[in-house]
Write a structure and sequence with these properties.
Elements lengths: L2 H13 L2 H8 L3 H15 L4 E4 L2 E4 L1 H29 L4 E6 L6 H5 L1 H7 L4 E6 L4 H9 L8 E4 L2 H7 L1 E16 L12 H4 L3 E5 L5 H11 L5 E5 L4 H10 L3 E4 L9 E5 L5 E9 L4 H13 L6
Parallel strand pairs: 3-4, 7-8
Antiparallel strand pairs: 1-2, 5-11, 6-9, 6-10, 6-11
Helix pairs in contact: 1-2, 1-3, 1-4, 2-3
């Protein structure tokens, strides 16, 4: 699979016609058909349903289209980073940005940072919050990304083979649907939780969340549903199911239909910047500057 095949697949899938895709791509329809036949053969499954009315996607084709867009965006970003690195060697910082690793706080400090680190450029690299992506990204900081802002503890850093600068402590609480009785609380007590049903990250996600889980499991009549990973779907399901999710105040703005209510009992997890164990001098300068400026605006 190459970038040309990927672009052709996206064009055919979106136009629903080999002829229309060929016009967009500047190719002949037979050439596009041949390319897509080879693409299907390489993938090993049927991607298109061909009828006299045009082309529609199979379920496999729909799945491939979503991933094709993501791969294409990543490729385009990689090309931009490579070109930028040639123009400004050693002065581009790659910051991961996703729903649960927001970069807005860092960007708010950017004017102050660049006063001291002149010539520094930033490349925001978007990614999806899947479990596989998080493992891959944190385990390879310095290769694809330089900095990710997120929650972490010592155990998580050891498992991922990276380092972190703690900026603040993220308080734990519940992401509560705004029509739920608990959403109006200033803080959630043990008594509030008796007889309730909540969703909690599975055991072993981190030492900090395991401490919270142990406390929650000691509450009589509290029903706990396991969540395998923190991603956008976890928050969406919280809204759809109407069941509060144990989370962090750092993620209070993830979904507009959820309110964050802290637990009255204080549970925290460090929040800050993750970087490689042996970062570049540029990353070290950047982290030092963030530390000098303070932490409030980074969240």
């Amino acid at each position: 699979m190459d970038s040309a095949q990927l672009a052709a697949y996206i064009a055919v899938a979106e136009k629903g016609s080999f002829t229309k895709a060929a016009e967009v791509l500047g190719m002949t329809p037979p050439a596009v058909i041949k390319q897509m036949n080879g693409f299907e053969a390489e993938v090993g499954t049927k991607l298109f349903l061909r009828t006299h009315r045009g082309i529609t996607l199979t379920k496999a084709g729909e799945s491939m289209l979503a991933d094709a867009h993501y791969i294409s965006d990543c490729f385009d970003a990689a090309v931009r980073r490579a070109q930028d690195a040639e123009r400004h060697p050693g002065m581009t910082l790659r910051i991961g940005s996703s729903l649960l690793t927001p970069s807005a706080g860092i960007l708010a400090l950017w004017p102050q940072i660049t006063k001291r680190l002149r010539g520094l450029k930033i490349e925001l690299v978007p990614f999806e919050n899947t479990e596989e992506n998080i493992h891959e990204i944190l385990g390879n900081l310095g290769r694809y990304l330089d900095i990710v802002a997120t929650v972490f503890d010592d155990e998580l850093l050891r498992e991922r083979g990276c380092c972190g600068l703690t900026l603040t402590d993220a308080r734990m609480g519940l992401a509560v649907p705004k029509n739920h009785p608990l959403s109006g609380k200033a803080a959630i007590t043990r008594e509030d939780l008796a007889g309730e049903r909540i969703r909690v990250i599975q055991s072993g996600w981190s030492r900090s969340t395991d401490k919270l889980r142990a406390w929650l499991e000691s509450i009589e009549d509290l029903r706990i549903d396991n969540v395998s990973v923190y991603d956008s779907e976890a928050f969406t399901q919280t809204v759809l199911q109407g069941i509060p999710l144990a989370t962090f105040d750092a993620w209070r703005n993830v979904h507009p239909k959820l309110s964050f209510v802290p637990f009255e009992e204080a549970f925290f997890m460090p929040y800050g910047l993750c970087h490689a164990e042996s970062p570049s001098s540029l990353v070290l300068e950047f982290v030092a500057e963030i530390e000098r400026l303070g932490t409030a605006a980074v969240r």
